[in-house]
Structures are given as structure tokens and as C-alpha cells.
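Hey, sorry to bother you again with one of my protein questions. A protein chain has come my way and I'm curious about its shape. It would help a lot if you went through both lines with me. I owe you a coffee for this, so here goes:
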Amino acid sequence: MLALEGIRVLDMSRLLPGPYCTSILADFGAEVIKIEEPGKGDYSRTFPPFIGDLSYWFLIVNRNKKSVVINLKTEEGKKQFLELVKTADVVVESYRPGVLKKLGVDYEAASKINPKIVYCSLSGYGKQGPLSKQADHDIGYVSLAGITSMSGEQKPAIPGVLMADMTASYMAGMSIMIALRHAQATGQGQEIDVSLYNASMTLMPGVANLYFGSGFVAERGNNWLTGANPNYNIYETKDGRFMSVGCLEKKFWTNLCTAMGKDEFVNLIDDAKNYPYLREEMGKVFKTKTMREWESFLYGKDTCVTPVLKYDEACAAEQTKVNEMVLDVHDEDLGDYKLPGFAMKLSKTPASIRMRAPYLGEHNEEFLK
């Protein structure tokens, strides 16, 4: 038996945060019914590249789900949705605050017909405040939360990962499991509000520690997280590639210096006045070997130094293979293709791929007949 077998989720979300959250629930056995609008459905269905008639983006974050097309702007569509709510345990939505209330399918309406319903809303800035109705994307949330100011060198850089989206996804999933536990124990559901902005604000405990504890405002280059320290930095190699150094603890720094034949650097790390000198000298040493030479040379020496890989290299890495983080999938319609693996490894109730992402409205007959 799959861990979440018997849990039914109505997923009204689109693009990334909501769909990624519900894909995790689906991977562990929940029945996720994707509620899509007529005509185009989830916007990500149009994102290239495609395999067959399905967007690869959509394929990745909507596996193990079913699709039902409902026009929530009509009385018939509202009735169909609320009928499904009667049989559901969870609703996930990502509309702007107030939209679903106008349509008559918000938490208040759902809870009247199913008091145990767990209703999770993913929004940009939350349900109240001056920005609650403002449209935005990941770059906006992390910029307002102070994260973008910590990235880059000469100017702020766009983070290479959709941090607000992905963090909110996981937070929504955790919140849903907490609320389901409460509903099972008490018979009472509840409303969950997960804001992408709020999620971003929680991503910097180290920065919060500096600011709340001493008033120091961390920015790019002025603290250990963003390149001020020689022992937590990125260095260019002989072939123009890069190595990341994360040996914050003295023992790892000692191991690195010893391996490099630079024992004289070991204790210089104890005084911040030496940091500019150490960064410069470490930079010179790293330029004596290629990235792969450094990787081979430092392997097994316990230095917390790793190569900065591109995505194709990361997918091909031996650790990735051993951890089964790239899955080979066969589908009768689409043939053979690859998907990201499962980050969470459970010994008794593992995740699994049981079906591909659905075509638009593929399961209408099953649920609306």
C-alpha cells in the first residue's frame, strides 16, 4: 500500500509551486485530480520542449495525476467542483486572493459541504497587505525578501533556482500533511495560506542571525555566505571552470591546506585581516589544475571542495546515478523518456511513478459522468 493511498486531492493550481507540491503527494499515492479550465488548461502545457503532445515541463510536475476540465465561471462548473469536494480530502489552489470567493468555490464554500476539507491556497504575497493583489513571479518575491541583493558580484544577480516557488511547494506539502493529521484526529479541516514571499523570508536564517543579533546587514560580498571568506568561496581553475570551497570548519580547512602543500595558510584563517590575502593566494593555487584534476586530486581528502557542475554533468554524475535521481520511464504513448527522481527516500512506503502526466480533460468521463 502506498503511504497516501485513499487521499483525494483536487488541484486547481498552475505552473510550478502548486503542481510541484501535488506531484509529491501523487508520487506517494494520493489521487490527484487536476482541475483545469477549458481550452488551454494549465499554462505550462504550452512550454517547450515537447515529447509527443505533452510539454516536458508539464510532464515533470504533473506525473501520477488525472485531468478534469471544469469551467468554474459557470453554475454547472461550480456544481461539478463542489460535488468533487464532497469526496475530497484536500484542495490546492493558486489563484489571486479573492478570485475563488467570487466564483463561490473558496474555503468557506467548500467547508460547508465538507467540514474535513483541507484547503491550501498558494499566493504571491498572502491574503492581506498592500501587495496581496499584485501579480509577480519568483524574481519579485526573492528580490523583496532581500535574497537577490545577496547574489552576484558587481550587481545583484538573478538566482539560478526558483527558490520562492520550490520552497513554497515544500511548505505547502508539509502544511497539508499537518492539517490532514489534525483532520483525522478531530474531524475538522482548515484553511492553509502559503505565501511565496513569506517562504522567501524564511530562507536566510544566517542573515537573520546577523541582523537581529548585531544589526549587521548582509549583502553580496560582505559576509561568509557571499564570498567574503576564503574558506567559503568559489575559485577558477586552470581550464576556466570552477571549484566550490565550503570548508568552514577548521579541520576541513586544514585538510585542504595540507593537500595543497600550503600548511602556512592553516592558522591565517583565524584572523579576518588575512582574508583578502588568502582569497588571492587560493585563487592562484586553484589555477594550477583543471577542474577535473582538482576533483580527482582532492577525492577522499575530506575537504568539502566540489566541482561546479553544469546540469548535464550533474545528471551524469555517479552520485546522481547511485541515488536514482534521474529516472528512465517508458510510456505506451510517449515512448522512453527521463524524469527527475525522488528526493525523499522512504524505506517502507517509497514513491513511485504509476502513470504519465494527463492530457487535458483525459479523465472527464471518470469523474463527471
Observations:
- The mean pLDDT is 96.
- The first strand starts at residue 8 and ends at 11.
